[in-house]
Specification:
The structure holds two protein chains of two kinds. By secondary structure, chain A is of the alpha/beta class. Chain A has 16 helices and five strands. A five-stranded mixed β-sheet of chain A has the order 2-1-3-5-4. In chain A, helix 4 runs antiparallel to helix 5. The longest helix of chain A is centred in the first third of the chain and has 33 residues. The N and C termini of chain A lie far apart (84 Å). Chain B is 57% helix and 11% strand. An eight-stranded mixed β-sheet of chain B has the order 3-2-1-4-7-6-8-5, with helices on both faces. In chain B, helix 5 links the parallel strand 1 and strand 2. Classes of the chains: A alpha/beta, B alpha/beta. Chains A and B meet through helix 2, helix 3, helix 4, helix 6 and helix 9 of A and helix 15 of B.
């Protein structure tokens, strides 16, 4: 192996080692998403494609680890591989673009376009740079006499992978979530403003662990009803539920109160809403119901606060069975 | 008294390497057992069986997709293809060029005879070093008459193939091989137009390659690429196969399923290999594998032979059926003793073989099932689908559906680009429709393999002027 190849090989490896050591998993929700995907739930499928902040390719790369390894090993191996992938793809994108501009070789164009498509599916962080570089690809062909006349070919080869990747993402959103642009809805001005504000605020000290909060919430609901169910909202919910096996909890990515009420008739439904801070600001629940954390929503009544989570109860008419049971218990008394 | 050549030598001397018996008794029993096991399993536990079958198929798809990446990576390396510039050839002159035998098997194609004659005459190679044989069936009156009417240059001759079973191109080629006088030998189809310096490049390729390189495959492409949509697709496929994938395989030092024409051989090695299997309907693919089994190698040569794309639906289906049937034959022939094949090819080439020969058949046969499942899911989103696609399988399946298919389309686009045929790129985007045709012919081939394994559905060519 020559020197250049060694550098090209080891640089992303070393960077990935450092990043994995310093930051761990690039997306803390990954274990939760993968858990749902392995279980084959709707929430898992929705989580796979439903947000440009928690992008599908990262999940797919992590999935085999989550499936085959115990969580501790999965997180270590997965975070290394993900970081390595990001560094390798980003360096391929940049080197390919520079190479295409300098040499005008088709291989460079193809590498740039392919790396761009892969990075596009790795999350919102990469989207701007990918879009700019890939858009410029066919025009960079004008730098060379032999490539100048084949603009049409470079448009095809350069834009197609990224366009296709975006198209597939849109299609999957339309199929799974019923809204082709669901994954980019959070990129609106209001959400981004909240995100910025939340980012600028200092981290709250003494934050209670999610597992503890969930345990407390479960106890709270169990004390009140035998027919309880708690929907834990958003990717923050998936992150919190990654190690949770209590069947009381159900992850929910796409909150539709009416359909949930219809689907779980006769049950006492609760909703755990994460505090809109950090990436949680971009959750679909907050661009659907901007004030849900503080004020709840229609028919959602605040029940109790558990650390960074607020528990709401869905107010609904009791089912006939519940009414009968209450009548029986009242008569018995 | 000279001994009559035996065109069925391979089948007579090494029947285990010939498709004379498409399936051995053991293979028949194994096949029946596998079908029975799957049927029984599907009867008693249909969901579990379907789930496992889908998981296995998905794993194979993923492997095929990754394999495609590997080949493409190989294609970008310098050793993928042997290149010789006109200067390289000029630097050789003056020199004594070896005798080069050219075999042109023809059957009922009198109209292409003037074209191939002209193309061979114009080959830049000393006239006295060309040993050309037109292999014509003895009962093919029209072509024989057309040949008799033409003035054959010195070194050009007609070899009559006595009518006998099987009536296949490889049988004719074996007779041609027996009468060949050259150190090297090449096959051209009746409608071929090879590039003028191809023979000289082939000689240089052999001389500059290691001794175990006994075959050099030229690139094939079509002169009627823009005739219609089918010709566009066919050209895109050929461009990707001969300009990217086969060079990629050569770079990986893999066994190469040869193309049916423009493969140059060392005659002695070809005789050692006992020529072509007269019973195999893709004798070229089979020969490529046998070359690998004997420890020899094939390399790709940067020179093109222009052919006529079959651009009508019916004949195309027949041609593709023959090719796919031949792949099935070849797979079963060489898998008669998998352990021996593994020993002879080595693990890496054994896997190449499975991917190249088995993978082609597998994709053609299984694709429609998955397309149907996808269509059902898109249209009806049936509730039971979750049971068939557990989480990881669903994720991998979706990955293959959306990205695997795209990779295959993109490879065809790259092929068009490499051939500088940008005008074909929009058609290449519609390649999935072409795959549907391939699946149809694949199933036709699968059925024909059991019902009429030796039937050779001849593709008629009209030549460039038509």
């Amino acid at each position: 192996m020559n020197k250049t190849r060694l550098i090209r090989f080891f640089t992303p490896v070393l960077l990935a080692c450092a990043a994995a050591f310093l930051y761990g998993l690039p997306d803390a929700a990954l274990p939760g998403i993968c858990k749902e995907l392995v279980a084959g739930t709707t929430a898992g499928r929705q989580a796979l494609v439903g947000s440009c902040w928690h992008a599908p390719l990262s999940t797919l790369i992590y999935l085999p680890f989550a499936w085959a390894l115990p969580p501790v090993f999965a997180e270590r191996a997965g975070s290394f591989l993900l970081w390595w992938f990001y560094f390798a793809a980003a360096s391929t994108l940049l080197a390919g673009f520079v190479g295409w501009c300098i040499n005008g070789k088709t291989g460079h164009l193809v590498r740039t376009a392919s790396a761009g498509a892969l990075l596009l599916l790795c999350g919102a962080v990469f989207i701007p740079v990918v879009c700019v570089l890939v858009l410029l690809l066919p025009f960079a062909g004008f730098f060379h006499r032999e490539t100048r006349r084949r603009f049409f070919a470079w448009v095809f080869l350069g834009w197609l992978p990224v366009g296709y990747a975006a198209g597939v993402w849109i299609l999957l959103n339309a199929l799974i979530l019923g809204d082709g642009l669901f994954f980019v809805r959070s990129l609106n001005r209001e959400t981004l403003r909240r995100y910025k504000v939340a980012q600028s605020q200092p981290q709250r000290a003494g934050r209670l662990p999610d597992a503890y909060c969930l345990g407390e919430a479960a106890k709270y609901v169990d004390d009140r009803t035998e027919y309880g169910r708690i929907f834990v909202l958003g990717y923050a919910g998936l992150r919190a539920l990654a190690a949770n096996v209590n069947p009381l909890f159900t992850p929910n990515l796409d909150l539709h109160l009416d359909s949930i009420r219809d689907a779980y008739k006769g049950q006492d439904l609760y909703f755990l809403v994460p505090r809109p801070q950090g990436l949680a600001c971009t959750e679909s629940v907050f661009w659907r119901y901007p004030d849900i954390y503080t004020h709840g929503a229609e028919r959602l009544l605040f029940a109790k606060s558990f650390g960074e989570w607020h528990l709401f109860q869905l107010v609904q008419a009791p089912s006939q069975e519940q009414l009968d049971e209450w009548k029986r218990s009242r008569n018995n008394k | 008294m000279t001994q009559e050549p035996d065109p069925l030598e391979l089948a007579h001397k090494r029947p285990q390497w010939s498709a004379v018996r498409p399936l051995t008794g053991l293979q028949k029993a194994g096949f029946a057992l596998a079908v029975a096991a799957v049927a029984a399993s599907a009867w008693f536990a249909p969901v579990a069986t379907a789930r496992y079958a889908i998981a296995v198929c998905t794993a194979v798809y993923v492997a095929l997709m990754l394999y495609k990446f590997l080949i493409l990576h190989g294609a970008s390396t310098p050793k993928a293809i042997l290149r010789f510039s006109p200067e390289d050839i000029r630097a050789q002159e003056p020199r004594e060029w070896p005798v080069f035998s050219i075999l042109v098997p023809m059957y009922r194609e009198p109209e292409t005879l003037p074209q191939i004659l002209k193309a061979l005459r114009e080959l830049d190679y000393p006239a006295d070093r060309k040993d050309v044989q037109f292999l014509l069936e003895a009962d093919d009156e029209p072509t024989l008459k057309a040949a008799a009417a033409l003035a054959m240059p010195p070194g050009f001759r007609v070899t009559r193939i006595p009518p006998s079973f099987p009536r296949t191109k490889p049988k004719a080629c074996n007779i041609g091989l027996a009468y060949a006088k050259g150190d090297y030998l090449v096959i051209y189809d009746a409608e071929d137009i090879p590039e003028k310096d191809q023979l000289k490049k082939a000689v240089l390729a052999f001389e500059r390659s290691p001794g175990n390189v006994v075959c050099v495959q030229s690139r094939l492409n079509f002169y009627n690429a823009t005739q219609n949509l089918l010709a566009n697709w066919f050209t895109a496929e050929y461009s990707a196969w001969y300009d990217l994938q086969l060079p990629g395989l050569a770079a990986l030092d893999a066994v190469i399923p040869l193309g049916g024409t423009s493969n140059h051989f060392k005659t002695a090695a070809l005789r050692e290999l006992m020529g072509w299997d007269a019973y195999n309907v893709t004798e070229d693919c089979d020969l490529g594998i046998r070359i690998g089994r004997l420890g020899y190698r094939t390399r790709m040569l940067e020179t093109t032979t222009w052919e006529e794309a079959c651009c009508r639906f019916g004949p195309w289906i027949k041609q593709r059926t023959r090719w796919q049937k031949g792949y099935i034959q070849t797979w079963f022939v060489h898998m008669r003793n998998p352990f021996r094949l593994l020993r002879e090819l080595g693990l890496v080439n054994f896997l190449h073989y499975q991917m190249l020969v088995g993978g082609v058949v597998f994709s053609a046969l299984v694709n429609p099932v998955f397309w149907l499942l996808t269509l059902l899911w898109f249209c009806f989103q049936p509730a039971g689908a979750d049971l068939l696609f557990p989480g990881p399988v669903f994720a991998l399946g979706a990955f293959c559906l959306f990205f695997g298919n795209f990779v295959f389309v993109y490879v065809n686009l790259l092929g068009c680009c490499a051939r500088k045929r940008d005008v074909l790129m929009p058609s290449a985007l519609l390649t999935p429709l072409y795959w549907a045709m391939m699946s149809y012919s694949g199933w036709r081939a699968f059925i024909q393999f059991f019902r009429a394994p030796f039937v050779w559905e001849k593709t008629a060519h009209k030549g460039k002027s038509a």
